[in-house]
Amino acid sequence: xxxxxxxxxxxxxxxxxxxxxxxxxxxxxxxxxxxxxxxxxxxxxxxxxxxxxxxxxxxxxxxxxxxxxxxxxxxxxxxxxxxxxxxxxxxxxxxxx
Length: 97
Description:
This protein has about 100 residues and is an all-alpha fold. It contains 5 helices and no strands. Helices cover about 75% and strands about 0% of the residues. It is elongated and about 80 Å long.
């Protein structure tokens, strides 16, 4: 979830209508004594989820994106290097034969 999504009320409204893995778990583990109406209300009308992990992610999202782009670029450079090395190796092998 990007920082922009986090601030958009529409995103929360759409997510509220989805059956997430954690909500699915609550439904599957529901006991026969659990009132299904209360469970549905708690899923549909719960407040915004705020945890230390989410706050950390929001704070460091820009750093993570930069790290991802750097690693992706390095991976492509490495793959290009390997491809060139293989191509040169096969060209030399053909010249030797």
